[in-house]
Amino acid sequence: MAETHWNKLGAYLKETQILGSIQNTLYWDQNTGMPKKGASWRSEQLTYIAKVLHERNSSEEFSNLIHSAKNELADIVRNSDNQLFIKDKERNISLLLKEFNRERNLDPQLVESLAKAKSKGYESWQEAKEKSDFKIFLPFFEELVKLRIEEARQISIQCSPWETLAQPFEPELNLKWLNKIFQPLKETIPGLIRAINKSQKNHWNLSPESQKILCSKLLDEFGRDRDLVVVGQSPHPFSITLGPNDFRITTRIVEGEPLSSFLATAHEWGHSIYEQGLPSQSHQWFSWPLGQATSMGIHESQSLFWENRIVKSKSFSKRFFKKFVSAGCSLNNYLELWKSINHLEAGLNRVEADELTYGLHILIRTELEIDLIERGLPAEDIPTEWNKRYDELLGIKPSNDSEGCLQDVHWSEGAFGYFPSYLLGHVISAQISNQMERDIGLIDNLIENGEYQKIIFWLKNNIHKYGRSVNCMELVRDVTNEELSPNYFINHLRTKVNDFC
After folding, report:
1. Which CATH number does the domain housing residue 442 bear?
2. Cβ neighbour number for residue 49 with a 10 Å cutoff
3. Residue 274 neighbours by CB under 8 Å, 6+ apart
4. Residue 362 domain flag
5. Is the C or the N end of the chain the one with fewer CB within 10 Å?
6. Sheet containing 246-251: order of strands
7. CA–CA distance, 466 with 83 (Å, rounded to integer)
């Protein structure tokens, strides 16, 4: 049988994905095991791969393969009854053309400069954070902002610069739609924070080794396959897929915070189990756009679901309390554990933030990004603006740069436009959780009975399996029969405040 244009395109995409997985493997190593003095050579490696990937994704050969497959598909459409399969193929071609046009518009020199700037930015951020000195990071940060604005200018004139940078994370996002979702949260959450009666926080701790053991038991409780999922440690927790059947997650141990690594592990598990359920794990769409995540907002909804709806539930504390006691937990009963996991108090750290205050951390970062990219905010003003906005919205101020504007890794990698995905994830998670309970029963009851596989099955069939066949807004509408709304999340926050205050 003669090789079809579609198969030739698939072979090309597979080779590109192999290169991408090598890039991801280098990133994993950079964050988990690479010695500091290896940073310079790693920068050269990542820059080279970024250059090669850009060449492949914007080449004339790739363009010809896409258009040949598109023409071949048009002939098949006229003679096929399998309209669903045809629709999926057409969606793949549409997404490939969109990404190709984005890549083709970029100057190769800019791509190379960005790769170098990201690597140097990450290295300088680590030093700046360790020394709590934003000025160390500032020149590299300024360069990243300048390069990313230029990237947005080269890619699109239809969207604003920040929208252009955000859309790879959240396809079709625009500022008007985002404001419609975020503004009610900005108006509501500060009032809920003021309503908190600060309850006394139980001060207890666990050894780093005990925390690692508990994280491992947590993943076993959820049903992880040790032959599929590997756990490491990094300065900032993350999840990454290195290839089919190779899923990695990291956590970090925070001194004096016995639940930090535990909650981070639950969060990253949510990302990983989503990746494991994507269409890319079936042979049919391996290497194709449809096999990828719907959006980062959907991705974050899955991680936040496991962190907040599962681990922070009363049933989970009841079910897992004895394991905490065995690890050295000094709390008296599962209700005290539940209250510790759900303690509500405005804090400076986004990663350690509770569900109530988390959204304001994201709103501050999102507004600062937009001001940087679109409104000419000088990069040197970030520490001052950061502290000012924390004081206005959360009523607290960082005492140094490390606990303030240097706490996140994202800007060191030029990932402008990513932060809104976290808050969108909360909003999406609340709405789909409501639908899940209508379909298969109360989440608390499912946890009490240890029915995690029933939960995973529902998520895979209603969320994971669709990949990029739809966008975020379409997926939420299809699953819940209504448009995405902040109201479910607001109601969830009000319930939580009533439970603990």
Report:
1. 1.10.1370.30
2. 17
3. 293, 298, 299, 302, 303, 459, 463, 464
4. yes
5. N
6. 229-233, 246-251, 239-243
7. 17
